[in-house]
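pls read this protein.

:::
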Amino acid sequence: MLSTLLQVLALALLSNHSSLLAPVEALSINRWRKAGGFSASSSSTDVSKGNDASQLPESSRRSELFRAAFGVVASAILSPFSAQAIADGSNSDIRPGGEIQYGKDKELMSQKGHGTTATRVQQNLRFGVSDQLADKICSFNRHFAEHSGYFLEESNFKEAVLNAKQPLVFYDSVTGKPLFVAPIGRTADEFLRESEVHGWPSFRDQEVVWDNVRVLSGIGETVSVDGTHLGHNLPDRKGNRYCINVVSIAGNPLV
């Protein structure tokens, strides 16, 4: 239903405000040229004309513009759902999504006051997880994880997701900074189903708060900017998938 609504609104935008999408049209022309849309034997004069939208097949032009319009509409409608304000009316500045952000091992995961973090995990973590296990995994661990299915068997993670009327924000168990907002772009059932299949909460790019999360270059370890071990990026055919320990994202928000 939501997808159909977005398509209808995208068509309306395309019909009445296509000038807003001019920059995307230029990009689509270049993309088509690189794919061989213009003859390689064209003269320099002909190639310069390749920037003329009239040379782009109408079907390709309309397809590119529709995708752009769909993106504009989806962003406008879904962006309010990417903030903690949805869940509890606070911290509306949280903005998940965007390009993956990489970090360097030595800069982020060096030894600090308490392992790789400055302090131990918070007391009274959310979802009923073990503070002791959380402290071990968050601050004194680079490779191991809570056992597969822990988030289902020994926490109330699933109930929290299903009972929430809006996407939940998941906070660093050490610092209380927001790390993930989910589900975004899918239903709670879809989010939980994917997580259950893999054994750990599994987030996608659009659900990551990149202000506070990094993926270590070359090894895929996913950490907070403050040195909290979170899990690993294990891409699949759908793209990046962040397989995360629930004990690492059970923090309470900063007040």
